[in-house]
Known about the structure:
With 187 residues, the chain is of the alpha+beta class.
Amino acid sequence: MESVQPPAGSQVSRVPAQRTPSEQLPPAPPAPAPQPRRRRLRTVLTVVGGVLALLCLGGVATGYVLYNRAAAPDRSSPDVVVVNYLQAALVSRDPHRAKLFTCDGAVPAVDEFGAQVAQRQQELNVSFSINIEGVAVSKVSPSEAQVIAVIRRSASIDGVQQSLADTWRFDVRDNGGWRVCTGAKVR
């Protein structure tokens, strides 16, 4: 084979290629594993995070609404507000809760009655069971009503079941929900 020289000043030189037989070649390096697309992964994580955040916010909002409904005093009608007031004032003896059902914070006649009941329990060394019965409503106007209720006190004294009942009249007013304004023993 004849060797041909490149023209003078040429940067190309011709060197016969020397190839090794394919058996002698080192094994080709393995192809690198394809990199996962970071953009796709980031998008999926962002969407999942957003959905979880919305679910959490929805759960918090639902819990808040349900709690407010459960904790708010029921002043939906005259008879309901009188029963709830008497339960708070006489049965639970919770003056703060009782005020939620009144016009001006306290109904002195009921407060005095509650104090008398507590004193009598102490004197007799018994615990009275207080029930509100025979609740009847008569409307005076669309925003005012009178409620008659029987307050029954029962106890077992010296092994004998005893009971006393008093009839009460309550004046109630609708002012963003019904509220007890006055109360007095009828007989």
